[in-house]
Amino acid sequence: MITILRKNRVTYELLETPGRDRIVGSYLILLDSTTRRKLLLQIIDVNYLSIPGEIEEIIRISKREESYQVFEEDENLKKILDELMDSRILICKVRAAFSLDDEAIDFQWAPSRLKSRIYEPSVEELNELITSRYAIPVKIGDDVEMDLNALDGGLTLIIGKKGSGKSNLSKTLIARILEHNGRCVVFDINGEYEPVAMRDKFLVLKPGENMFLSILGLGKELFINLMETIMGLPSSSVWELRRILDGLENRNMLSLKNLWNEIVCGRINDLVKEALLRRITVLGESGLFRDSDATDLDRVFKEASNKALVINLKGLPKSFRQMIVETVLNKTVRMLENGEIKPLFLFAEEAQSYLDEKAWEDYITRMRHIGLSVVFITNEPDSLMSFVYRQADNCFIFNLVNENDLNYISKMSKIDAESLISLVPTLPIGKCLAFGNITGNIPVMLNIRRENVFGTGETRKVLLAVPKH
């Protein structure tokens, strides 16, 4: 039996006698038969009943071995005492309010203690509450359906410590998006998005192997921007670089080789010449640049319709990783703005490691208007920019125990800090807390399905466990 013990705003304390094995994060329905209203409650903590005064003393004495025979004959009293000792207090948060009469209601009403019934919702009832109005319901967990359409046009975060299941979730989302004819760009820093299934739905580019850049392909302005922001070219040298590139462009001779020759043979200040040649040498030796047979990114984006374009960044130095990401993002944004390609999803693993806060803020600010939906995946919550949490539309949080990480994430407006701190630290591997538009702003605990589209991503270990005999 479950009854209402007390209420404090949107927090309810329920008394369950006798106590059951309740899972933190699970749901209860509170139905008030007098008003025909119901509340969806989520358990965020389970405590034992604290029994004060004389009753506590009676129970304590009754359990003493020397006094137990006094109560042994009264089985009813013994049963009552045992049930009281095993009673639980369920701390619950209101996640949604509904009316059986279709009236608009909020959370702030007090249900009847006598006329209310509290029960566990079935999977079907829970799905109806969360997904009844959704356009693209999909399963990414064991039971609960979610609205894939709610990711579209939004900013989504996937957060958790290493090995908790983040990459598996991102792969599952990619697979579901492709099944519904969506398209994705994936920045893969660990080389783990190599498909073993649905190969016709993926195009994997690895810089230096089957992806090469050229000045002509990048365009003059993007190349100058890369030299200045990523290669650290001083402003005085940037001016000289622009002058030389203008001349080469007018003669249709834009190439790394021609740029080198112009700098070597030109009448240029020695310090400027040295700064330019040093950086061009690095580009030439990187293996990422070619004057001929360079990758035509415009053509790749147009031909990779309804596919996932995976950019494998594994093993690249940070500066080259930044260069590739900046190049791909610039091309993506330009083509989206010009209507040359359809809207797409961008999956960025550890996004903070290859672009600075200012660049990401610019993309995120414009993304809804150009058709770019961004998904960040990270195991370092405090490394993501604070504005990301303020603007996030959806969040999937795996196990985190660091209090500073939890406090940082609590800046999000779609969930309260108390729920985060109660639910997240005890999450097992492969289970996450999902909330935001994708769940109708109802926090949901998900056991993420193992995705078989990819053959990599598991942690590789030195020592192998041997079962005991």
DSSP strand count: 17
Spatial strand arrangement across the major sheet = 11-12-10-13-14-9-15-16-17
**CATH fold-level label of the largest domain:** Rossmann fold
Instruction: Give the terminus-to-terminus CA distance.
Output: 44 Å
Secondary-structure blueprint of this entry?
Elements: E1 2-8, E2 11-16, E3 27-32, E4 37-48, H1 53-62, H2 68-72, H3 75-85, E5 88-99, E6 116-119, H4 123-131, E7 137-139, E8 145-147, E9 155-159, H5 166-179, E10 184-188, E11 202-205, H6 215-218, H7 220-229, H8 235-250, H9 256-265, H10 270-286, H11 297-303, E12 308-312, H12 318-337, E13 344-349, H13 357-370, E14 372-378, H14 386-391, E15 394-397, H15 403-409, H16 417-423, E16 431-436, E17 444-447
Parallel strand pairs: 9-14, 9-15, 10-12, 10-13, 11-12, 13-14
Antiparallel strand pairs: 1-2, 2-5, 3-4, 3-6, 4-5, 7-8, 15-16, 16-17
Helix pairs in contact: 7-8, 8-10, 9-10
Descriptive overview:
The protein is of the alpha/beta class and 469 residues long. It is 36% helix and 21% strand. The chain folds into three domains: 2-131, no CATH class; 137-211 and 295-447, 3-Layer(aba) Sandwich (Rossmann fold); 221-228 and 235-286, no CATH class. It contains 16 helices and 17 strands.
